[in-house]
Write a structure and sequence with these properties.
The protein has 10 helices and 15 strands. The chain is of the alpha/beta class. The longest helix is centred in the first third of the chain and has 23 residues, at about 1-25. The radius of gyration is 21 Å and the shape is globular. The structure holds zinc ion (3 copies).
């Protein structure tokens, strides 16, 4: 009788706690708990140079040089499937060593199943060097790239050596063409305007459980793109968007040479979106000068007050 009573009490408690947990579950979460279906994990949020930036002695980087907790790595996402224990990353950054270590710590899986690259700027592909014979010496690691990026890697050392020695196995992508990483995860690359000196630039749409996330770490001004970004935001569930600079004048140089959409401009452009659509917008790829890197800054408060979000390192995105 005592046992039955105890079981009933335990049962009652477990029911109540389940009921209580349900409404708190958020779409975006930094919780440690691993989701039971494929998800995205944020491994880095800064612009190509990371934060702080090499040699920067200005106010923007001062605290970050002193305190490693404030330092941020270059923008990088992992796509993780806990069912098949597969994992991929989008972009091979100069911080790939720390980022893959973070991924391993969080998922318990060391193996990497492939890399999707956005473009040939230093923050987005140079981490590939760690897969050569000096370090990992991987065997045919799949690297998904667009045609010009493929050509760039095949034709230029040291990258061409990775191809020749079959450390990496280049998989050619076609823009606007959806392909599967596995039965649960679909990917669609799409071209975006950006300083395309060595390769074209793509953003990626990640589709899991009929939900989707777009990742556009680098793009020129929104009006240079034939796609209407506001309409695209309405169609997806998460939009991780270029937030290199917060506002004009942030750099003491002609900023039209590096025409990223300022966060202030993006927020203006998206101001007519519904609250729900605004919540989908998550800014990422912060330059060291961007005050959004500083916790509690006026800029951060402004973004949240206007109904938008910031991507956080270690964040898990559930679908
Ligand atoms: Zn970049
Ligand atoms: Zn700085
Ligand atoms: Zn770039």
């Amino acid at each position: 009788m005592k046992n039955i009573l105890l079981i009933s009490v335990v049962f009652l408690f477990s029911c109540t706690s389940q009921k209580e947990e349900a409404p708190i579950a958020e779409k975006t979460s930094t919780e440690e708990e691993i989701p039971n279906t494929a998800y995205v994990m944020v491994l880095g949020i800064a612009q190509d140079a990371g934060y702080p930036q090499m040699n920067c002695k200005k106010e923007c980087c001062k605290q970050a040089w002193k305190n490693p907790d404030l330092q941020r790595t270059t923008s990088c996402l992992a796509i993780v499937d806990p069912i098949s224990k597969e994992q991929w990353i989008i972009d091979a950054t100069p911080n790939i060593k720390e980022q893959l270590q973070l991924l391993k710590q969080k998922t318990g899986t060391e193996k990497l199943d492939g890399i999707l690259l956005t473009h040939a700027h230093m923050g987005h592909y140079t981490g590939l060097m760690h897969f050569g014979r000096e370090v990992m010496g991987t065997d045919n690691l799949p690297v998904f790239v667009m045609p010009k990026m493929k050509n760039f890697l095949e034709e230029n050392g040291p990258w061409s050596q990775l191809v020749k020695l079959e450390n990496i196995n280049i998989k050619a992508l076609k823009s606007d063409s959806t392909f599967r990483l596995n039965e649960r995860i679909k990917i669609k690359p799409f071209l975006v305007p950006h300083r395309d000196e060595f390769s074209e630039t793509v953003g990626y749409e990640i589709m899991i459980n009929n939900k989707s996330l777009i990742f556009i770490p680098d793009i020129d001004k929104w009006e240079k793109w034939e796609t209407d970004i506001s309409e695209l935001i309405k169609k997806v569930d998460y939009a991780f968007l270029d937030a290199t600079f917060y506002k004009n004048g942030e750099l003491k140089r002609d900023m039209s040479e590096i025409p990223h959409p300022f966060v202030k401009e993006s927020m203006g452009l998206f101001s007519d979106l519904t609250e729900t659509d605004k919540q989908k917008v998550h800014f990422i790829h912060f330059n060291h000068t961007n005050p959004l890197l500083i916790e509690g800054s006026t800029a951060q408060k402004e973004v949240f007050e206007k109904g938008f979000n910031l991507v956080k390192e270690g964040q898990m995105i559930r679908f």
